[in-house]
Design goal:
- It is a single chain.
- By secondary structure, the chain is α+β, with helices and mostly antiparallel strands.
- Helix content is 29%, strand content 23%.
- The protein contains 15 helices and 24 strands.
- The strands form 6 sheets. Strands 6, 7, 8, 9, 10, 11, 12, 13 and 16 form a 9-stranded mixed sheet that branches. A 4-stranded antiparallel sheet has the order 14-15-17-18. A 4-stranded mixed sheet has the order 19-20-21-22.
- β23 and β24 form a beta hairpin.
- α4 runs parallel beside α5.
- The protein is globular, with a radius of gyration of 25 Å.
């Protein structure tokens, strides 16, 4: 990797004698790390019978010995784990140190969802998480990953920080992982070195300050702001933290750490800040600081229902079958959006009307499904939710080949013994989605926009739990034979059905 000359000069000034070690680390292999989803019962990963190395600052974080073929691992699509850079998992320490009771939390720049899924796992029980993404295309990716993680106490929005700033004193905690120059990602994305410049560093530093200004009003007095970047320079890091303390009156808070983590402290000023260098910690470049907003009087936002016509509108009844789909229906309130039914848990229900009035909401709580005439089609989000009552559906557990076929939204042939109707499709006990079994065939209900789009399959596919599919060419031959067999079986069933109809 060829580093920009200006970057070398500036970073050498920061690190002094450590720069050579830092530069050597950037040429080394990129560590691979995941967080397991304990709410879904995901076991700790292991290889050759030995547990994988833990990420020291994250209870559910693990390093993998090598990169998996995540696209071809059904458990990845099931939300059994999330692939996240290890250094950024340090967010957990800031939350556990300074958040002790249920809160309203905003992840301001959330896509693709690494920090949001982490927050959903480590915020106190009963907390509300609002995950926001400014860029529309990225917001849909965020909504997908939130759905796969399965925590119902989440709302996904697509808004500019200024729009969120209108929610005066609404949030107890705001996570601002602001857009940055990306110096800490050089090793993962070598092409990004060509986009780096001092001018871009200054641009990003100013943008970070503007974002904090835009959203500052939405943070309660005494609330917590967690500011982070994936860069090393002081303009985007220490200088912005100093700006927030001086101009906005915030107090930078310490976060307990251990010496063996080798986290670097402030390189300028004396605020408690935490920086990760790849030659010291096993991860990429990362910077984080926790700041407390000054105490003051909290203003209450009142909800105004502008659409008076909806007050007299008849609300459709919740289908009787849908009531049995959740483990605890008493904790959820139904909300219809056209023919689509959502179930809102208490933390979401209490704020949903207000947020709907001010923000563009992509998802809230659990999307249960869609009513079509007398039929109710369960949604993918329901299958992936930790609130799903699995006993409400017949279940079919697919092997790897069929699971991949399902995730590609290809045709499935379920066992003859499978009950007709909506079936929960699983792999190794983890729900993937739904199919509708019609007896002689099954309709694959996996969302079109979520499907595995690539037709390419690597020669070797490495998936979770240390399992190898060594010779993919043979595997694919098996898949092709099964596909041909599937078509033949369908034809035979159709012929048989026609014969029976004629005889009758």
């Amino acid at each position: 990797m060829a580093l920009p000359i200006d970057f070398i000069t500036r970073t050498r000034a920061l690190l002094g004698n450590e720069f050579d070690s830092f530069e050597a680390a950037l040429q080394a292999d990129v560590p691979v790390s995941i967080r397991i989803n304990e709410k879904k019962g995901t076991p700790a990963p292991s290889t050759t019978g030995a547990p994988c190395e833990r990420v020291a600052w994250c209870e559910t974080g693990y390093y993998l010995p090598e990169r998996l073929s995540f696209t071809f691992d059904p458990l990845f699509h099931a939300g059994a784990y999330y692939v996240q850079e290890a250094s950024s998992m340090f967010l957990e320490q800031a939350i556990r140190s300074h958040v002790k009771t249920p809160v309203r939390c905003l992840d301001l720049c959330a896509a693709p969802g690494g920090k949001s899924t982490h927050l959903a796992a480590c915020l106190p029980e009963g907390s509300l998480l609002v995950s926001n993404e400014v860029i529309r295309s990225r917001s849909h990716i965020l909504a997908e990953n939130i759905a796969k993680w399965g925590n119902p106490n989440c709302i996904v929005t697509n808004n500019d920080p200024k729009e969120i700033g209108c929610l005066t004193h609404f949030f107890d905690v705001i996570i601002a992982d602001v857009p940055c120059s990306g110096e800490g990602m050089f090793r993962k994305d070598t092409d990004s070195t060509g986009e780096w410049s001092i001018a871009n560093v200054e641009l990003c530093a100013g943008r970070g300050r503007r974002i904090i200004h835009d959203v500052w009003n939405a943070l309660k007095p005494g609330g917590l702001l967690i500011y982070s970047t994936c860069t090393y320079n002081m303009e985007e890091d220490e200088e912005n933290i100093h700006y927030i303390t001086e101009e906005l009156g915030a107090e930078a808070l310490p976060i307990p750490i251990k010496d063996e983590w080798q986290i670097t402290g402030p390189l300028k000023y004396n605020h408690p800040v935490y920086r990760f260098f790849p030659h010291k910690t096993k991860g990429e470049g990362f910077f984080l600081a926790a700041l407390r907003k000054a105490d003051g009087e909290t203003e209450e936002i009142r909800f105004k229902n502008k659409n008076k016509k909806e007050k007299g509108k008849t609300v459709p009844a919740v289908p009787e079958a849908a009531r049995a789909y959740l483990l605890d229906t008493t904790s959820f309130t139904p909300e219809w959006s056209g023919s689509t039914l959502w179930m809102l848990p208490e933390p979401v229900r209490d704020v949903y009307p207000l947020l709907r009035e001010h923000l563009l909401i992509l998802s809230a709580g659990i999307c249960m499904g869609e009513a079509k005439g007398k039929d109710f089609i369960p949604a993918e989000e329901l299958a992936l939710s930790t609130a799903l009552r699995r006993e409400a559906f017949p279940t079919v557990d697919l092997d790897w080949e069929d699971a991949i076929r399902y995730l590609k939204k290809e045709a499935l042939l379920l066992p003859d013994s499978t009950e007709k109707g909506y079936v929960l499709i699983c792999h190794k006990g983890f729900p993937l989605g739904f199919a509708k079994h019609l007896g002689n065939r099954a309709n694959n209900l996996y969302p079109q926009e979520w499907r595995i789009r690539t037709g390419y399959v690597p020669e070797k596919v490495r998936i979770s739990k240390g399992q190898w599919f060594i010779c993919m060419s043979k595997k694919m031959a098996v898949l092709e034979r099964r596909s041909v067999t599937l078509v033949r079986m369908r034809k035979q069933r159709r012929i048989s059905t026609r014969v029976q109809m004629r005889l009758s």
